[in-house]
Write a structure and sequence with these properties.
This protein is an alpha/beta fold. The chain has helices spanning 4-9, 14-23, 25-31, 93-111, 113-128, 160-172, 183-198, and strands at residues 42-49, 53-62, 69-77, 142-151, 177-180. It has a five-stranded mixed beta sheet with strand order 1-2-3-4-5.
Length: 201
C-alpha cells in the first residue's frame, strides 16, 4: 500500500508537503530526533524568530542529559521536484538559496540565543495552552544542540557522487547542516506505521 506522503509527493509540491507534515508531526519528529521516535518532543510549524526569519518547522527534543535543555533542528522545505545538484556538481538553485537561508538562521540564533529560547517557550505555551514552570521538563531553559536541515528533491535524483557531496557538506559543518531528500521522511512514515500496526513490537 502506498504511504500517504509518498502519494502526495508524486502529484503535489512543497506547500502540500508542508500541510501534510504539519498534520502528521510524528514524521519530522521521527526523522530528526536522536531517538527516532516522536515521544516527548515538539514540532513547531512556521516558527517566526526575529523580524525577518520564518522556518517551515522547528523540531524540539529534550536532552536526556540535562532537564530543561533541548536539541533544536531548524527545517526548511523545498520542492520535492527540485534539482539537488547540477550536472556540474554545483548546488541547484533552490538548494543554494536554502543553504544560504540556513546559514543566516544559524548565525542569527547564535547571536540572539536568549531571545530565541524565550520564543520557543512562548510558542510551546501557545500550542499547548499551558505554561510550564522552571522545574518542568517541558520548560525550555536553553539549547543544547542546534542544527538545520533542508528537505529537497528525491533520492533517485542523486548519483553516488552527489551523495558524497552531501556527506562532505555534513562533515564540513560537523553535522550542523544536512541536505535531506524527501525519501527519508517517506521511510520514517513507513517505519512508524509498521510500528503502529505491530504495537511497537
Amino acid at each position: 500500500m502506498t504511504i500517504g506522503l509518498e502519494r502526495l509527493l508524486g502529484t503535489k509540491g512543497e506547500a502540500a508537503a508542508q500541510r501534510y507534515l504539519a498534520k502528521h508531526p510524528e514524521i519530522l519528529l521521527g526523522a530528526f530526533t536522536a531517538s527516532g521516535f516522536p515521544l516527548g518532543q515538539w514540532l513547531l510549524p512556521k516558527f517566526r524568530f526575529g523580524s525577518d526569519f520564518v522556518s517551515d518547522f522547528v523540531v524540539l527534543s529534550p536532552s536526556c542529559q540535562v532537564t530543561g535543555y533541548f536539541d533544536v533542528v531548524l527545517v526548511e522545505l523545498e520542492s520535492p521536484m527540485a534539482r539537488i545538484f547540477t550536472k556540474q556538481g554545483r548546488l541547484g538553485k533552490q538548494l543554494n538559496d536554502a543553504m544560504r537561508q540556513l546559514d543566516e538562521w544559524l548565525v542569527w540564533v547564535c547571536e540572539n540565543r536568549s531571545y530565541f529560547v524565550r520564543s520557543l517557550q512562548k510558542a510551546i505555551t501557545i500550542m499547548t495552552g499551558a505554561g510550564f514552570g522552571p522545574e518542568s521538563p517541558q520548560h525550555v531553559k536553553d539549547i543544547l544542540g542546534l542544527s538545520a536541515r533542508v528537505v529537497i528533491g528525491r533520492r533517485s535524483m542523486l548519483s553516488s557522487q552527489d551523495n558524497k557531496r552531501r556527506a562532505a557538506i555534513s562533515m564540513i559543518t560537523t553535522g550542523q547542516v544536512a541536505i535531506v531528500p524527501y525519501d527519508r521522511l517517506v521511510d520514517t512514515e513507513a517505519r512508524l506505521r509498521r510500528l503502529d500496526r505491530t504495537g511497537g513490537a
